[in-house]
Write a structure and sequence with these properties.
NE1680-like fold; alpha+beta; YcgL_dom; 2 helices; 85 residues; 4-stranded antiparallel sheet
Length: 85
């Protein structure tokens, strides 16, 4: 699965993963707006079993498949978790 990652300019260490490049239409405005402007950062193949620096690769894959996006928040903002989607 190809994955496209964008970094929020407004929220430090917050990233938006998309299943399709520049397909922001699938991200609800209530989630998208607080992120502010986004900078394209990275694209890579998110294969089963691939480890991510932060977060659970399988959870990211599931969110991309189901919703078309995954938002990774700084661990300090999500009690007891490293990411959310």
């Amino acid at each position: 699965m190809r994955c496209y990652v964008y970094k929020s300019r407004r929220r430090a260490d917050t990233y938006l993963f998309l299943a399709q490049r520049d397909d922001f239409a699938r991200v609800p405005e209530a989630l998208r707006a607080p992120l502010g402007d986004l900078d394209f950062t990275l694209e890579f193949d998110l294969t089963p079993g691939r480890r991510l620096v932060r977060g659970d690769g399988e959870a990211v894959r599931a969110n991309l498949a189901d919703r078309g996006f995954h938002i990774q928040f700084p661990s300090s903002e999500v009690p007891g978790a490293h990411d959310a989607g």
